[in-house]
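Note to self: keep these together.
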Amino acid sequence: MRAIAIVLARSSSKRIKNKNIIDFFNKPMLAYPIEAALNSKLFEKVFISSDSMEYVHIAKNYGASFLNLRPKALADDRATTLEVMEIGRAHVWTPVTA
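Structure:
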């Protein structure tokens, strides 16, 4: 597998409710990083990491793949990007054995 992209989109924004799915020029905000990653041709797959099935369904409509919902412990404003990315990488990466 070549490089993958993981788009992070939690549903519990404190300042702007559901900011990741607010329409911006006729598309949800979440669509822009997904489309940019897919159109770049740098990534074999683009995954969505979210705690919301609503967000997952929207992301899939724009071409993202999905593994499983983000654990609640990683869905608040104290979760680090590194922690979330590590969970995503662990689900996607499969060691190659000789």
